[in-house]
Amino acid sequence: MGLLNRENRPKPSPESRRSTARRQAGRRDKTGHLYSIRRRWLYSNAMLALGLLIIVTVVVNLIIPLAAPVVRLSFNIALGLGAAIIAILFAANIFFIRSIVRPITEITAAAHRISEGSYGIQLNKQHNDEVGELTDAINDMSMRINQAEALKTEFISSVSHELRTPITAIAGWGETLLYDDSLSPDNRRGVEIILGEARRLGKLVEELLEFTRMEDGRFTLNIKQIDLAQELEETIFTYREHLRRDGIELSYTPYEGEVPEISGDPERLRQVFYNILDNAAKHGRDGGKISVKLELDDTDVSVEIRDFGPGIPADEIEHVKMKFFKGSSKQRGSGIGLTVCEEIVRYHDGRLEIQNAADRGLFVTVKLPLT
């Protein structure tokens, strides 16, 4: 059993996302504006060299045969000097273009890293010119974004903590009032609505608190050997009655063989399953059912949760795990449930995959390593 946090547990971290951003920047360099600079430079120099070659060829063919030996010698000397000057200019052009392209390439890679979430990174300023001014602007932007993110996280954490006490009080008194037999049916229904909304707000507050813990590095895992099949089955047993009241059927297909124990935090993984089932219930309610399946291969144990709702628009599916992204959905929520789930799965060195079904509905797959 161990207590692991963001700083000492190996996982796909922001640094890996930075490496991805650098690789993407390298690919863009082959097709984007930087490559166009090199290409225009190459074309312009090639046209200059071709023009000079044509002029020299014409002069050699027309003048040299008719000229005196001294003139021919002078021309050859001048031609040699001209070729040397062209070579020097060509080398100077290479140095000049590299002095522009290389810093811009580094700035482009840094900008992509910032867009991937590496706020606060600073570039090394190497030039006191226009490129240096651009570096200063990127550094200033990075710091301001980092400060804004820190302020936002602190604000969310503070507000969430302040909301927990009144929400707990509302929920507690709502449950107490339900035991009052003198309540009229309308009043009882009103109390049930209040209690339901208080629980919903409580869930949102807990998600926000989890999000802020992840953002500032206070998120922890209590790792031990667990039976994932048992944890999943207990989650389904607990959640099935809730879904039945909402008119949604929950079916479960266990793995036929033996599922080995894995390293994980049972509470955090149950949180992942709860969140995914809750999303499936909210967004796939029209389908009337949810299916859960446990699979095993040579490297991973997979939990596949499918709803039979409308799915996610193709242009939104790659963004659904981004924090606070809600897309075109009309369902209420914080927009960070899947963000929290993905971070928990990443902390377990696993993967959270989301894709639309071929016919109807959405597949959400949690893959966790066996070792």
Key words describing this protein structure:
single chain; 371 residues; alpha+beta; Heat Shock Protein 90; 2 domains; five-stranded mixed beta sheet; 8 helices; 60% helix; 13% strand; elongated; disordered N terminus
How does the helix and strand content classify structurally?
Answer: alpha+beta
Tally of DSSP helical segments: 8
> CATH H-level name of the largest domain... which superfamily?
Histidine kinase-like ATPase, C-terminal domain
Averaged pLDDT, please?
A: 76
Query: How many beta-strand segments?
Result: 8
- Backbone shape: elongated
Gyration radius, in Å: 32 Å
| Terminal CA distance | 15 Å
The helix fraction, in percent, is 55-70%
Please state roughly what percent of the residues sit in beta strands, choosing from under 5%, 5-15%, 15-25%, 25-35%, 35-45% or over 45%: 5-15%
Show unreliable segments: 1-33
> Which CATH class of the largest domain applies here?
Alpha Beta
Task: Give the name of the CATH architecture of the largest domain.
Answer: 2-Layer Sandwich
- The topology string of helices and strands comes to EHHHHHEHEEHEEHEE
Biggest sheet overview: 5 strands, mixed
Q: What is the CATH topology classification name of the largest domain? A: Heat Shock Protein 90
Biggest sheet: strands side by side, in what order?
3-5-6-8-7
Structurally, the number of domains stands at 2
Task: Kindly describe this structure.
- The protein is of the alpha+beta class.
- It has 2 domains: 117 residues, no CATH class; 147 residues, 2-Layer Sandwich (Heat Shock Protein 90).
- It contains 8 helices and 8 strands.
- Strands 3-5-6-8-7 form a 5-stranded mixed sheet.
- A hairpin with a 3-residue loop joins β5 and β6.
- α4 runs antiparallel to α5.
- It is elongated.
- It starts with a strand and ends with a strand.
